[in-house]
Design goal:
The chain is α/β, with parallel strands linked by helices. The protein has two domains: 46 residues, no CATH class; 194 residues, Rossmann fold. 39% of the residues lie in helices and 14% in strands. It contains eleven helices and six strands. The strands form two sheets. A four-stranded parallel β-sheet has the order 1-6-5-2. Strand 5, helix 11 and strand 6 form a beta-alpha-beta unit. Helix 6 crosses helix 8.
Length: 247
């Protein structure tokens, strides 16, 4: 039966058909069989992606549709150490569940999904803002051992693959273990991270840095990392995350 079927189609088409039979393309989120790689159209459309009218620095939604890529009042009043935030969508629903499963439950079927999200974000970086170096937000070594997974490192590798720009895990590291930020208020987050990071000045001096993390919440982690990088000689820091919390 199979030989009669293969007789009427090209070898390449036969190979593709056999692949589709043996390796069904399933959405990693809902397990629906579909014709594309990654998420199915239904799951993809359920993600609340970044709107156009947002603060260029922190990602807050702005009231005016004409305010695209302008700093919000908060960022004008309290300047941050990074100059721009790129993020794919808001930290709720499916996107939140995918990130939690990927980070904590070994659901590595999402690798291809997040790799594509990062590639999409990298394609939005203006030519004049292209970084010289990609740097992941570092985890403390004890947390990496306990979790067995470093999500920021993987995302930095995805960005390096998408842009052809080098990444370095040695440019920034944690000097001490800190309380998980999710348990703390905004003020406590800032205090918790003070002097928590150390930068390798020889790697970053005079360079534009793209700082990578999985989630942007209050911006305390990104801001402290950026401050450390700038004080160690970096020229500019921009931030990229998969999601941004709705505050």
């Amino acid at each position: 039966m199979i030989s009669r079927f293969l007789h009427f189609i090209s070898p390449f088409s036969a190979f593709q058909s056999l692949q589709n039979i043996l390796y069904e393309r399933r959405c990693p989120a809902c397990q629906t069989i579909h014709s594309e790689h990654g998420l199915c159209s239904s799951c993809r459309s359920s993600i609340k992606t970044r709107p156009e009218n947002i603060c260029i620095i922190c990602g807050n939604e702005l009231n005016s549709p004409d305010a695209e890529l302008l700093p919000c009042i908060t960022c004008q009043t309290l300047p941050r150490n990074f100059s721009r935030l790129y993020f794919y969508g808001f930290h709720e629903g499916l996107l939140r569940n995918m990130l939690l499963g990927w980070k904590f439950n070994g659901q590595y079927g999402y690798n291809a999904v997040f790799k594509q999200f990062v590639a999409d974000l990298c394609s939005e970086i203006p030519a004049e803002h292209m970084p010289d170096l990609i740097v992941p937000v570092p985890l403390h070594s004890s947390r990496i051992r306990g979790r067995g997974f470093n999500q920021s490192m993987h995302l930095a590798k995805f960005a390096a693959a998408a842009t052809g720009i080098k990444f370095s895990a040695k440019a920034l590291h944690r000097a001490r273990r800190t309380t998980p930020q999710t348990r703390l208020s905004g003020a406590q987050r800032r205090t918790n991270l003070h002097s928590a990071f150390v930068a390798g000045s020889t790697l970053i001096k005079g360079k534009n840095i793209l700082l990578i993390d999985d989630v942007y919440t209050t911006g305390s982690t990104a801001d402290e990392c950026a401050r450390t990088l700038l004080e160690s000689g970096a020229r500019q820091v921009e931030v990229m995350t998969i999601s941004r919390a709705l505050l």
